[in-house]
C-alpha cells in the first residue's frame, strides 16, 4: 500500500460504510451488466490496471511482470469496450456471460486528503457462458482509490489495481470487468 502501512478505518466509520456500499452497488451493476451506469461511477481520469502475475523465487523482490498487464485502461478505453458489447463484433460476450462478483475482506484507509479513500478488497468472480463451456472462477485482490465527487455528491472510482491470485488465468478471455 502507498506510503507504508496504515491503520484501517473502523467498520462503523461512515467512510468505510460508504466505501463498502460503493463496492456492493458496483458488484450489482457488473453482475447485471449495466455497464453504462457503471461507467458513471468512474472518474474521468480512472486508471484500471491488472498486472501480469509471475511465479518467482522467494526473496526475488517482485511477483509482477515489469511493464506487462492483462489490461491497463483509462475512461476512454473502458467506454470503447462497453460500446463494443453493444455491437455484433462482441463475440467474446455473445451469448453474454452469467456473472457473480463476490466482494469480501473490505478494508478502508484514509487517503492523502479528505476527498480520497484507499479500499482493499478480495473478489471472487464466478462466470459461466452458454450451455457447454465449464464455469470459471477468478480470485483476486483489489486496491482501489475512491474520490469524492462534489457535483454528484458521491464516491467515484479513480483507480483500481487488480492482482490475480494465480499466474495462469484459466478463463477463456477477460472480456468482463473485475
TrEMBL record:
PANTHER family: 3-PHENYLPROPIONATE_CINNAMIC ACID DIOXYGENASE SUBUNIT BETA, BLR3401 PROTEIN. The keyword Hydrolase does not apply. This is 3-phenylpropionate dioxygenase. Belongs to the bacterial ring-hydroxylating dioxygenase beta subunit family. The lineage of its organism: Bacteria, Bacillati, Actinomycetota, Actinomycetes, Mycobacteriales. The keyword Oxidoreductase applies. Transmembrane segments: none annotated. GO terms for molecular function: dioxygenase activity. Pfam families: Ring_hydroxyl_B. It comes from Mycobacterium intermedium. One of its GO terms (biological process) is 3-phenylpropionate catabolic process. InterPro entries: NTF2-like_dom_sf (IPR032710), Rng_hydr_dOase-bsu (IPR000391). Keywords: Dioxygenase, Oxidoreductase.
Amino acid at each position: 500500500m502507498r506510503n507504508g502501512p496504515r491503520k484501517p478505518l473502523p467498520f462503523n466509520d461512515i467512510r468505510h460504510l460508504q466505501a463498502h456500499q460503493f463496492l456492493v452497488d458496483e458488484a450489482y451493476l457488473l453482475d447485471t451488466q449495466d455497464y453504462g451506469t457503471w461507467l458513471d461511477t468512474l472518474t474521468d481520469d480512472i486508471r484500471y490496471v491488472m498486472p501480469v502475475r509471475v511465479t518467482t523465487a522467494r526473496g526475488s523482490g517482485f511477483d509482477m511482470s515489469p511493464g506487462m498487464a492483462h489490461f491497463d485502461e483509462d475512461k476512454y478505453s473502458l467506454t470503447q469496450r462497453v460500446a463494443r458489447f453493444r455491437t455484433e463484433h462482441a463475440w467474446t460476450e455473445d451469448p453474454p456471460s452469467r456473472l457473480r462478483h463476490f466482494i469480501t475482506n473490505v478494508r478502508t484507509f484514509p487517503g492523502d486528503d479528505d476527498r480520497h479513500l484507499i479500499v482493499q478488497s478480495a473478489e471472487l468472480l464466478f462466470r459461466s457462458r452458454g450451455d457447454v463451456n465449464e464455469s470459471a472462477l477468478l480470485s483476486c485482490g483489489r486496491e482501489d482509490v475512491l474520490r469524492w465527487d462534489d457535483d454528484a455528491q458521491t464516491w467515484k472510482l479513480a483507480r483500481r489495481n487488480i492482482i490475480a491470485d494465480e499466474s495462469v488465468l484459466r478463463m477463456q478471455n477477460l472480456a468482463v470487468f473485475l
